[in-house]
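During the no-cost extension, the postdoctoral fellow (Dr. R.K.) reprocessed legacy sequence entries with the updated structure-token encoder. One reprocessed record is reproduced below for audit purposes.
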Amino acid sequence: MSDDRKAMTLRLPPDQANALEAVAQVNGVTVAEEVRKAIQSRIDALRADPDFQARLREHLERNREILEGLAST
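Re-encoded structure tokens follow.
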């Protein structure tokens, strides 16, 4: 069975790393699981944020124009 997860490196200041390790221990999960949960919470919040969604649409439109320009040459 293949693991389709992407490995990443995260550098944190010592106080933040210590706090994260403590939270993970108290919750009985790995640090990686706490990080995944925090990232998912942030993504969920951004999906519900109208200002972010507006910026996202602008970004998509700008990149679509760039990609269409590249495709037509």
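The chain has a mean pLDDT of 94. The chain has three helices and no strands. The remaining legacy entries will be reprocessed before the final report is submitted.
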